Amino acid sequence: MSPAHLFTIVLLITGAAAASEFFLRKVYRKRLQKVADEWGMSYSPLDQLRLTPRVARNFPVAGAANIRVVDLIYGSDCDEYRYVFTAEYTAGVVSGKHRVLRAGTFSEPRDRTGSGGEPLISLASKNLPLIEQYRTLSPRERAVERSMGSSQASDGPR
User: Fold this and answer.
1) Which of 8, 72, 93, 97 is found 20 to 30 A from 147 (Cα to Cα)?
2) pTM: predicted TM-score of the whole model, two decimal places
3) Helices (H), 40-114
4) pLDDT digits (tens, 9 = 90+) for 84-141
5) In contact, 133 and 103? CB cutoff 8 Å
6) Torsion-angle region of residue 43: left (phi > 0), alpha (psi -120 to 50) or beta?
7) Under DSSP, is residue 104 helix (H, G, I), strand (E, B) or coil?
8) Contact 107, 114 (CB under 8 A)
9) Sequential DSSP letters for 7-48
């Protein structure tokens, strides 16, 4: 096989992989948009509200690094703003580092003058597919949990 043929094959495989990644990402974003519509909230694939610094300061996983917020679902309800998002972060030490995607949520009062506190971030179970993690963090599900007096769904020590 000539180098030109090999190069062409590599380019075709790379192009096919990029096209499939683009298509799958588009389908995933449509699913999240549908979830946001069901909840009566808005969806943004990027962190246009600049939540990443606040999430990183209060992230409930010890040792998490390079935290990034993406696929943000947000909205307001009566007296609070609610955010549901994907937190991408690096976990592990030295040789066992790996990238993790988990759905997380927090809310804050609409009137932030009196609170002054940092948000309490809850993460969904890492054993679920990401779209199902979002569904477990539904504002309705969270309201039911609060009314029943259950604790936040954040992770404990690792």
Assistant:
1) 72
2) 0.78
3) 52-57
4) 999 999 988 777 888 999 999 998 888 766 555 678 899 999 999 999 999 999 887 6
5) yes
6) beta
7) strand
8) no
9) HHHHHHHHHHHHHHHHHHHHHHHHHHHHHHHHHT-EEESS-T
